[in-house]
Amino acid sequence: MVIIPEYKEALPETVEKGVRLYTVYVRRGYSDVQDPTLNTHSKLNCIGACIQAAKAGADEALMLDPHGFVATCNSTHFFIVRRGEIWTSTGDYCLDGITRGKVLEIGRELGLTVRETNFTMTDVYNAEEAFVTGTFAGLVPVTEVDGRIIGEAGAGRPVIARLQAQYRDLVGRYIDGPGKNHPRG
User: Fold this and answer.
1) Which pLDDT belongs to residue 14?
2) Given its phi and psi angles, is residue 107 left (phi above 0), alpha (psi -120 to 50 degrees) or beta?
3) Mean pLDDT for the chain overall
4) Mutual angle of helices 158-176 and 98-109, in 10-degree steps
5) Stretch 158-179: mean pLDDT, rounded?
6) Backbone angles phi, psi at 124, to 5 degrees
7) 11-20, 64-73, 168-177: range with highest mean pLDDT
8) Cys staple from 26: which of 39, 44, 49, 96, with CB 3.0 to 4.6 Å?
9) Residue 27 CB: number of other CB atoms within 10 A?
10) pLDDT tens per residue, range 24-51
11) Is 96 left (phi over 0), alpha (psi -120 to 50) or beta?
12) Closest-CA residue to 84 (of 103, 63, 112)
């Protein structure tokens, strides 16, 4: 059985303004509990995480892996910028997302250091920039995690801006090229 979600577009103000995350107690589990490479298993842990984040007044949940390292969000992939480098989780506890993969490629094409690595909440709180990626919104800045502002006021988001521009260009080329005849729902 294949379930295809309805076509959605992210609100422009969300992409511009950003989102707020809340670190939840619900963890991403080992592959014998929920295979992170498949998007077909029960997502009860992600639903619980989403509910907890919403009750905390956040837009989405930030989830840790069984070892306490940052894993992913409940419905998007999470990245930080530290010392000009792009960091994301190892991918051991998250879906191997297409947008995630494209952002990793784009970062490398731009000559940026890109790391798929274990990192902690201390790294997140001290990040210069943070963002999430997903099918509908592409790249969205994260402005706040657990009530802490990410980055310095007035510093802008130079890495995110470069990645967003390249990503929009990549999507545009696809739409004008191979995706030209793809039916939209």
Assistant:
1) 78
2) alpha
3) 86
4) 110
5) 87
6) -65, -50
7) 64-73
8) 49
9) 17
10) 998 787 776 766 666 655 677 888 889 9
11) beta
12) 112
- Rounded Cα–Cα distance for residues 71 and 89 (Å): 5
Q: Percent of the chain having pLDDT more than 70?
A: 84
Cα(179)–Cα(52) distance, integer angstroms = 38
Dump strand ranges (E) for the chain. 19-23, 60-64, 70-73, 77-82, 85-88, 114-116, 129-134, 138-145, 148-149
Q: Which two tokens stand for residue 115?
A: 């790391």
| Residue the block writes with tokens 């502002």 | 149
Q: How far apart are CA 107 and CA 133, in angstroms?
A: 13
Better pLDDT: 170 or 152 = 170
Q: How far apart are CA 97 and CA 80, in angstroms?
A: 17
Would you say 179 and 172 are in contact if contact means Cβ atoms under 8 Å apart? Answer: no
Return the ∠ at Cα 48 (arms to 67 and 44), rounded to 5°. Answer: 85
Residues 6+ away with beta carbon under 8 Å from 125: 145, 146, 148, 150
Closest CA to 129 of 162, 81, 163, 73: 81
129 burial level (CB within 10 Å; 0-12, 13-18, 19+): buried
